[in-house]
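Key idea: predict the complex, not the pieces.
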Amino acid sequence: MSLTVEKTPTGREYKVKDISQADFGRLEIELGEVEMPGLMACRAEFGPSQPFNGTKITGSLHMTVQTAVLIETLTALGAEVRWCSCNIFSTQDHAAAAIARDSASVFAWKGESLQEYWWCTQRALDWGVDGGPDLIVDDGGDTTMLIHEGVKAEEEFEKTGKLPDPNSTDNAEFQILLGLIRDGLMSDPKKYHKIKERLVGVSEQTTTGVKRLYQMQANGTLLFPAININDSVTKSKFDNLYGCRHSLPDGLMRATDVMIAGKVGVVCGYGDVGKGCAAALKRAGARVIVTEIDPICALQALMEGFQVQTLEDVVAEADIFVTTTGNKNIIMVSHMKQMKNNAIVCNIGHFDNEIDMLGLQTYPGIRRITIKPQTDRWIFPETKRGIIVLAEGRLINLGCATGHPCFVMSCSFTNQVMAQLELWKEKDTGKYETKVYVLPKHLDEKVAALHLGKLGAKLTKLTPEQAAYISVPVEGPFKPPHYRY
Amino acid sequence: MSLTVEKTPTGREYKVKDISQADFGRLEIELGEVEMPGLMACRAEFGPSQPFNGTKITGSLHMTVQTAVLIETLTALGAEVRWCSCNIFSTQDHAAAAIARDSASVFAWKGESLQEYWWCTQRALDWGVDGGPDLIVDDGGDTTMLIHEGVKAEEEFEKTGKLPDPNSTDNAEFQILLGLIRDGLMSDPKKYHKIKERLVGVSEQTTTGVKRLYQMQANGTLLFPAININDSVTKSKFDNLYGCRHSLPDGLMRATDVMIAGKVGVVCGYGDVGKGCAAALKRAGARVIVTEIDPICALQALMEGFQVQTLEDVVAEADIFVTTTGNKNIIMVSHMKQMKNNAIVCNIGHFDNEIDMLGLQTYPGIRRITIKPQTDRWIFPETKRGIIVLAEGRLINLGCATGHPCFVMSCSFTNQVMAQLELWKEKDTGKYETKVYVLPKHLDEKVAALHLGKLGAKLTKLTPEQAAYISVPVEGPFKPPHYRY
Amino acid sequence: MSLTVEKTPTGREYKVKDISQADFGRLEIELGEVEMPGLMACRAEFGPSQPFNGTKITGSLHMTVQTAVLIETLTALGAEVRWCSCNIFSTQDHAAAAIARDSASVFAWKGESLQEYWWCTQRALDWGVDGGPDLIVDDGGDTTMLIHEGVKAEEEFEKTGKLPDPNSTDNAEFQILLGLIRDGLMSDPKKYHKIKERLVGVSEQTTTGVKRLYQMQANGTLLFPAININDSVTKSKFDNLYGCRHSLPDGLMRATDVMIAGKVGVVCGYGDVGKGCAAALKRAGARVIVTEIDPICALQALMEGFQVQTLEDVVAEADIFVTTTGNKNIIMVSHMKQMKNNAIVCNIGHFDNEIDMLGLQTYPGIRRITIKPQTDRWIFPETKRGIIVLAEGRLINLGCATGHPCFVMSCSFTNQVMAQLELWKEKDTGKYETKVYVLPKHLDEKVAALHLGKLGAKLTKLTPEQAAYISVPVEGPFKPPHYRY
Amino acid sequence: MSLTVEKTPTGREYKVKDISQADFGRLEIELGEVEMPGLMACRAEFGPSQPFNGTKITGSLHMTVQTAVLIETLTALGAEVRWCSCNIFSTQDHAAAAIARDSASVFAWKGESLQEYWWCTQRALDWGVDGGPDLIVDDGGDTTMLIHEGVKAEEEFEKTGKLPDPNSTDNAEFQILLGLIRDGLMSDPKKYHKIKERLVGVSEQTTTGVKRLYQMQANGTLLFPAININDSVTKSKFDNLYGCRHSLPDGLMRATDVMIAGKVGVVCGYGDVGKGCAAALKRAGARVIVTEIDPICALQALMEGFQVQTLEDVVAEADIFVTTTGNKNIIMVSHMKQMKNNAIVCNIGHFDNEIDMLGLQTYPGIRRITIKPQTDRWIFPETKRGIIVLAEGRLINLGCATGHPCFVMSCSFTNQVMAQLELWKEKDTGKYETKVYVLPKHLDEKVAALHLGKLGAKLTKLTPEQAAYISVPVEGPFKPPHYRY
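Result:
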C-alpha cells in the first residue's frame, strides 16, 4: 500500500476516488440541503456568530451526501474540518470529492481496504504541527478507540519500553491498528497523549460506539468527555427506526432487484433497527419472522403480527435474512449451508461480525461469484446451492445503497451540531467531566421542532393552565427523562 | 342516596348490580384465565407458598373480567381483598357479581353516580375494626388521593378544628370528596391516619395516577411508598398502546356502528395511547390527523404518515375525535359547535375533563338525546347539527366496550402482582422509602417472558461469548434502564 | 310452534320481538340516514315522482338498521313493503320494531327457530287476496327458492297428485320447507303459480343467491327476471370487502373480547370476503394464514404477506378460524378436535354449512356451554379442550355484532333501489327477459358518485380532449365491462 | 445518426451499448431464472417438444434481465428471436449484451434517441430475405402500430402514389415514424404488406397497447389476431399492482434518495398501477392524496384512507407527484410552476405525455440542471424554485430503476409464452380471427399455480362434493369470467 495525500489548489489536503466528481457531488449536496432543515436552521441561527471560529474538528462518519451537509454546517459555523469514513464501503465518492474540493480535508473512498481505512482515519486525526483536533465527531467509535489504544500503548512504552505487538491478536483489523500505533510510537512517542490533552470531547453517533464509551466509563479508562448522540430520541427513535425502514429495502433492491412481496424474511433482533427492518419487509409484502433474545422486544414483535422463532427453526424456509443485533456470530456458516438456493443474507448492524464472513470465506471448496460490487454469490460445494451475501457482511444500506436519506439524517446530525456546540461552549467551565452524557431534553425537542415546518406540520400550544395541570413549562420540555416515546 | 352493603351467605360484604349474573361472570372469567398467562403463572409459582397469607388488599381499578382474574390471583396467593371500580362506567356487572359471590368484597356497578362512586371507594377502604388495608392497588390515584386528602383534613382539624368545606371548590366531584371526608372526620377524626400508619404501599396503574404521585413526591407530601406500574415497559408500551389500539375501535363500533373506513379521524395527543388510537383508526381505513404539543411526538406522527395540525384547523372537516392527552380542556364546546353533523367525540384518557362536558351541558338551548346508555346526541340550537358524545366524555373503551382485552391486561396485572409481592416482601426491610419506584428491569422482562408461550414464540439464547460481547448477563436484563423499546 | 300475526293501530301486520323498542330503533335509523348518502339521494331524486306508487315489494334481507333505511327509501318512493330477515340471528329487534310501527310489515326477530324463519318468509310473501308481490328484494335466495320449489311442487301435484314429502331429504331445513309447501298446496294448489305470474322480478344481494340464480338460468328453470346486485362493483368490491373488514373484528370482539394482536388467524377462502377478513385480522396485529383452492387468489394472498397452507397443516397452531368460502364442509369436527383450547371458530359466509355444526352437535360426549347467546364453548370429552363457536356457525358479523356498517350498506342498497326501479320501469317493455342481469356500469358509477361528498372527496373532470384520447365519454362510464377494479 | 448493425462471431446481428457486459448480464440472468418459476416451468414442460422450431418471433419490450429470461424461454422452445426495447430508457445494457452474445438479435440500449428507437424497432422487424416475423411480442403497441401505419401508407401509395408526409403532424415522434415509412416505401413498396401476410398474431403486454388494439378492432382496421395479455388476471392484477408497488419507491430512491416518510404524495389515477403506487408511498410513510375521474376508483381510494382531491387543490402542498393514468395532459407546466421547491414529478404510465414535458422544455427562461442521467432539476425563472423531473417524464421504474422485479414479471411473461404458444398452435385452425382475445381462465390459473411452489404455498383441493356444490370442476377454472379478484 502506497497512499499519498493530495492537495487542492488552495492547499487543502485530501484523498478521494475522483476529484472530478465534485460537480456532481455539489448538485446532490444542494438537493440534500433542502431536505435537511435542521442543519440549515443551525447555519441560520449560529452562522453569524461563528462559534467554531478556529475550532478544529475531526470526523469519522460515513462520507455521504448527508454528511457533506453536516460538514459544511460545521464549516459554516467557523470550524476547520478533517474527515474520514467509518466504514470501508460507505463513502459516496462524489460527495467526498465535492467536500474535498470546496470545504474540508477528506480521506475516504468507496471500497477501501482495511489498511487504507486506518490510514484514512489517521489522516483525519493528523492536524500537523499546530496540533488538534479540538473536537471529534465519531460513528462506531473507531477514532475514539484509536486514541485510547494509542495512549495506552504510549503509557506502556514509557513504562516498559514495550511496543504493541500485532501478533498478539488474531483479529485482522486489530492487527493493523496495533501496527499503526507501533509505527507512530517510533516516530512520536507522545502523539496520542498530545491529542488527548487538547481534545475537548467527542460526540458519538451509534449504539455500538456508545456501548464502548459506557464500558470505558465503567472501567475508568475513558479519557475525555463524550456526548451520546445515539440516545437522543431524535436519533435512536428516528435514524435507527425510520432510516432503516427506508434504506433496507433500498439496499436490497439496488443489490438484487429481488421482489420482496411473497418472500419470507428473517430479521435477527427487534431493537429500533430491527423494528425498522421488520416493518419495511412487511410493508413490502413479505412474511417476516423475528429472532430475539429479549422477551420484551419479542412480545412487541408478536403484537405487530410477526412470528418469533429461533434462526435454527426457520433457516431452511426463508428467503431474506437481515441481522440488526449489534452482537456477533448471529448467522454462522453452518446456518448458511442450510439455506435455500439464492437466499439473501445481509447485515445492517454496525460491524461485519454479525454474519460469519470468516467461516464463509474459509469453508472448504466454497466458490464466490461476484455479481457486481457488494453482491456476491457463495456456492457450497456439497449442495451446489448458492447464497447471496450483500456488502460483504457490512452495512447493506451504505454498502449497497446510499444509506439513510437526508431528512432523517438531518435529525441525527442536528444533534451532532448541538453536541459539538455544547462541548465547545462549555470547554472551560468544567460542566462536562470525563463521562458520557446525553443531550438535555430541550435540545432533543428543539431538533424535532426544526424538522416540522418542512413537513407542513403545525404544533398545538399549551395554555399556561394546561401546562400547570400537567406540571410542565409551556415551552417544554414536555416529558420526564424516562419517557420512552 | 341510600346505599346498603349486602352480604353473601358466608358473610362477605358487597354491593353489585345483580348477584345473579355471577354464573355468567364466572364463565367469562374462566375464558379470561386462558388469555392471561402471566397471572396464571403467578398462581402456579407463588400460590403454594401463600405469600399474602392474611394480607389485606384494597383495590380501586375498573371492575372487569380482567380485573377479576387479577383479584383471584391475589386471593390465590392468600390475600383478603376489597375492591371498587375507578370509573363510574367501567364495571362489568357480571364480573363484579362473580367476584362478590366467590372471592372478594366488591362495591361496583356500571353507571354509578359520583356520589355512589365515592361511597364505593370508601367501602373498599373500610376493613372494619381490625383495620387495613395493608396494600393498595390503585388506578388513576383516587384512593391514594382520598387517603392523602383525609390525612390533610385530619391534621388541619386537629390543629385548627376546621372541617373541610365542600363549598370551597366548584369542582362537583371534589365537593363530594370533601363532604365525605368531613362526615368521616366527625365520626372518627383519626380514620385516615390509622389507614396511613398501617399501609405498606400502593402500586399505581396509570400515567395520570403516576403523575400525581411524582407531584406529591416533589412536594414532599407523599405519605407511603409507591410503585409506578405504568412505566414498566410491559405496561406503558403494551396496555397503553396495544390495548387502546384494540379497544378504541371496539368502543366506537359498539356505541355507534359507524364505518370508520373513509372517515377523517382526529387524535389529540400522540403518546402511547394516542399512538395506539391513531394506528387503530388508520388500520380501519380512516385518514387520521394528529394534534400534539410535543415536537418529538409530532415528528413521530409525521413519520407514520399522519398529518399534524391544530384542532382549530381541522375541527370542521373531521368525523371522529378522540382525546388521549391526560390534559384538560382539549375539546371545548366552542370546537364542538363547529363540527359536522353527527361528528363523534370521545375520550380515552383517564379523566373526563379532556372534553368540555360542563360547557356542553350548560350551553344555552342545547338538546341531549340519549340514543342508548353512553351514546348521546347533543344538538346545538343554532345549527340544528348534533354531535355524538360517547361515555359522557369518560373512557370510551370502558364505557362503551369492555376495556382492554385479557391478554394485554395480563401483562399490566402481572406487573401489579409483582409489585404487590415486592412491597409486601420488603415491608420490614426499609428497601422502599416514601418514594415512587419503578419495577426493576428483570421483573419487567419476566412479565414479558411469561406471555410468550401462549403465542407460540421461541426466544433465542445468548451464548456466554455473545453476552460478554454486549456486556449483559446471559439471562438478562438485556437493556440499560434508559432504553426506549 | 304457534305464531300469530299482530297489527298496528293502523292495521299493518307485523311480528317482532318487542314493539316498544321502536323509539330506540327510530333514533338509530335517524343516525343511519346520515351515514347512507346514496339512499338519501335516491329519496331526494325519486321521491317526488313516486315511481313505486302502489308497487308491492317483498324483501328477505337481514332486518337491521341499515335495511330499515332501505325499506323506508322504498316506501318514500311509494312502495308498500313486507319484510322478513334472511338469517335467524341477524335481526336487530329495535330496527324491526321501528319499521313495523312506522313503515312496513315486518316479520323478524333475533333468534328465530328454523320453523319460525320459514313462517316469517311466508308472511312476507303473503299479500292477501289482492295478490303480490310485484318485486322481490332477496338475500341468499331463500324467498326465490321458496317460489321456485312451490311452483315445482304445484306442477308435480297437478300432474301426478303427489305432495312433497319432507322425509325425502335429511336436510332439516329443507324438510321444513317441503312441509310448508305441502301444507300450502292443500289449501291453495295455485298459490306459487299466482305469485310467479304477477312477479316482475327479483334483485339478489349475495354471491350465494346469485350462484343459485345462474344455476337455474343454466338449467332452464329460472321463472322470472333477476338482477344480480352482488356483482355490481359497488357491492362486491365494497360490502364484501370493506364491510367484512369492519364487521369481522367487531363480531369477534363483541362475542369474545379476545385480543387479536399476537394471535394466529386462519382465513378459509381469499375472495372478496376473505380479503376483507384477512386484512382485518392482520391490521389488528394477528399473523394470518390463508387457505385457498384457487391459485390466483392464493398468489394474491402471498403478495400481501399471508402464508398459504392447508387447514390440516395449521389446525393445531392457530387461535382464530374464519370461513369465508361460500362452500360447504370447510371446518369439520375432525379439525375442531385438533384445535388448541379455546380456539375461536366462526363463519362469515352466507350459510352455516361451512362449519360442520352437525358433526359437532352429534359428537359423542361433547359438552356445550353457552357463555352468552351466540357464544358457545364446546368441550371434547377426550381432551377436555374446548373451542368457542360463534353464532352457531352462522354469519358472525350479523349474529354477534350488527353486521356491516351503514355507509358501505348504503352502496349495496342504492344498487338495490336502482335495480328495483329499473325492473319496475321496464316491466312492460320486455327489456328484461327471464335471465340474470347485472346493472349497467353507469348506474354502478352513479352509486359510487353519490357516496363521495359525504367523505369530502372531489373528482377530477376529464377534458373532452382527454376523454377522446382514452375513448370514453366525458361523463363516463369510464371503464370497459371486464375491468376488475 | 449513423447506426450500423454489428455481428457476433456466429453471425447474429445486434446493436447494444457494450457487448463486453455480457458476462455481468449472464450472472444476473442466472439469478433471474431462480426468481421466474413460471418461465422455467415452461422450459421444462415445452422445451422437449420444440413447439417453436423454426418460428421467427419479433419482440418489442423493455430489454431487461426479466425480458432476457423470456427471450431465452422462447429460444429454448425452438424460436429464432429479434428484439428491441419499447422505451428509450428501459434497456439494461448488460442484459442486452448477454442476449446479443448468446441467444438472440438485440437492438437496444439505455438512452436511445427517438430516431435510434425507431431504427431499433425496424431492425427487430427486419428478418431479411426469408421474411418474417411469424409472431410478435409487443408492449405498448409501437411495433404493431408501425406495421399498421406501414400497410396504410403502402395502400395509399399504391392507390395515389402519395408518400407519407412527416410535416403533416407536429408530434415529433410521429414525424420520425412517417419518415421511416416513407423511406421504406421507396425501397420496397410492399414491405409491410409482406410482414402482415406472414404474421400469425401479436400478444400485447400493456393497457395502453391493448386500448389501441380494441380501437382498431372497433374501427375495423385491425390486421391480424391479437391476444390481450394485459387483462389476464395474473398480469393486470399482479404486474401492474404489485410490480409498481415495488418499483415506484425503487425508482424514487435510486433517482433522488428522498425520504418518503413524512412527505405528501399525489398519485394521479387509482387504477391497478395507481393502487400499487399509492400503497407503496403510504407504506413508506407518506401521506397520499389521490386524483381520480372515476367515482368507483375514487371511493376505493377513500376506503383505504386516501384523500381524494383535484390536482389543483393540492399542487402547492405536495412533495412527490406520480402519474399513473394512461391519459395525457395530467400534470401541466402550469401545475409545475406552483409546486414547492424540489417537488419530485414522475410518471409510471406508459407514455411520456402524462407530464407536460413539452410545456416544461419550452417555458421561457426555464433552466435545466441534470443531476445525473434521468434526474433533472428544472428551475422556473420567476420563482427560482426548482422541480425534480425523473426519467424525462417517461416510466420512472424503468428509467430510474430496473423495472418490475423478476417474480412478478414471471407471471406476466408466462402469459406471453402461453399466448405465443396458443397463437402458433392454432395458426392454421382459424380459431383466432382478426380480433382481440384474452387468454382462457384455465391458463390464467395455470400461470398462478406455477408460481406458488417458489413461495412455499400449498393449495387446498376441492372434494368432488364441494366442487359440485359450487358448480365448478375439481381442477378449475374456479371463477366465472366476470370475477374481479
